[in-house]
Amino acid sequence: MDGFHPATGFGPDTARRYDDRPRGDEEASASFLAEHAGEGSALEFAIGTGRVALPLARHGVRVDGIELSPHMVARLREKPGGDALDVVVGDMVSETTGRTYPLVYLVFNTLFNILTQDGQVECFRNAARHLDEDGVFVVEAAPPWAWVRGEQYVDVERITPGSVTLDVNRYDHVTQLLDENHVNLSGDGVRLAPISCRLVWPSEMDLMARLAGLRLIERSGGWGGERFTASSPLHISVYGRA
Question: Segment Disordered: which positions (predicted)?
Answer without folding.
Answer: 1-29
